[in-house]
Please model this.
Amino acid sequence: PKERFTSILREFIYPELEPLGFKFSKSKPAITRQVGDIKQEIGFYGSKWNQGNVVCIYRPYFHVRSKSYGKWLKNEFQIGSTYEFLYSSLGQVRKIEGWDEGKYGHHSYSDYDFAKYDNEELIQIIKKNIIHAGIPLMEKMSDYNNIIKDCMDNGLKGSAPRLLDFCYLLGNKEKAHEILKWSSDINFVNHVVENSNLRKIKFKNWL
Model:
């Protein structure tokens, strides 16, 4: 199933994204592009139940990474490069604004079964969703200010430590204080509290 789906991705979806600066990954079913320091990735997770022509399920995801942010984290907090993510859909693409689930996606993660549905129809709906929903989202989430606003609008208080980093990098003290107040009740999530306190200490003189 992986070879089959990778071939579909390369032959029928990638050609429309190549003019936008995307490159086809050599190691996995994914398409990426570099925009300055930012790496945007459109990829697909395969189901562990995939088997021949019986099950061929793939789940789309969107990632946005920043090498400079990862390097900054490593220098400031000795945190590894795996933390260079600015955004990850974590498979929850159906929550993306403008995403058209149609009759094809199933489960809460928008899985697409290429053994169950007409492949041409799946290709068209996936291309539509990537171009009209996924790419605009990645472009939006490549900006620190947009990430801060999105996380706060959606009540994602667990992201507070990362948002404080962005405020520091932007030089926005006022927003940093707003985030500290907004996230003051997250004492039930130990690692978030620890990371937030780490920022308070590190940014003490700045705040």
